[in-house]
Amino acid sequence: MLAALAVLGAAIGAAAQNKVTARPEQPGGQGSSAPSPGRDGNIGGPAADYFYEFKQPDFVIHHVEIRHDERGRGTIRFERKQDAEAITDPLEVSADTLARIKGLYDALRFLDSDANYQGKREYPSYGKTVLRLTSGGRERAAEFNYPGDPNAMALMQEYRRLTEQAVFVFEIKLAVEMQPLEAPKLMNKLETLLRLNQISDPKQLAPLIRTLSTDERLPLIARNHAVRLLKKLEK
């Protein structure tokens, strides 16, 4: 009787151990041998990381850093003269903007080139721009003051529009929470940026502007301005 119980106990223990250590079979019957996706979502593929930096100590926003992956997810960090500390916010680059950025990097053949993109003349008042791309185990950076290459110029401008859009979002959200009387001035600023094509993706701002148009914490003049801008954004 004791021998039988010992055998039964050993069998139960072995079964329990197998249940704990066995790995569930993956779809397709591959078990644990299926490769895991990389950070970019591709099976076994390396992630691409994009970096932009701008410095001009005389500007109100005198230092900007943007980092994002190839899905457009990242952060923006910027320093303003009126702030004691740098501000860091999450950043979501829209699909349209991301396609333009990738297309410009491809046009430059950035990782395969050794060009620094600096034009024949330097303009110190324009500040310094750094572009860096990491992909497929390779990394390259280029620094310039005023680019002579039209694709490098367009890429720099894409990131400056991203900066303008992100800074506006930060400032209007701050105004809603703490300084509602600043909202009319910020709406005027946004209209100017839109007119000058200095916003990265106007459609991306539509949900925020729609919320502002009905937010009773803001002065009526700001809400009415938001309504007018929303009509333009939705055309």
Describe the structure.
The protein is an alpha+beta fold and 235 residues long. It contains 6 helices and 6 strands; from the N terminus they run αββββαββαααα. It has a 6-stranded antiparallel β-sheet, covered by helices on one side. α5 (202-212) packs antiparallel against α6 (220-233).
Helix proportion? 40-55%
Computed structural class? alpha+beta
- In total, how many beta strands? 6
Strand content: 15-25%
As for the number of domains, it is 1
- Mean pLDDT comes to 85
Distance between the termini: 85 Å
Radius of gyration over all CA atoms, rounded: 26 Å
Pick out its properties.
single chain; 6-stranded antiparallel β-sheet; 235 residues; alpha+beta; 6 helices
Task: Give a short overview.
By secondary structure, the chain is of the alpha+beta class. It is built from six helices and six strands, in the order H-E-E-E-E-H-E-E-H-H-H-H.
Fold blueprint:
Elements: H1 2-21, E1 49-55, E2 61-69, E3 73-80, E4 87-92, H2 95-108, E5 128-135, E6 138-144, H3 150-178, H4 183-195, H5 202-212, H6 220-233
Antiparallel strand pairs: 1-2, 1-5, 2-3, 3-4, 5-6
Helix pairs in contact: 2-3, 3-4, 4-6, 5-6
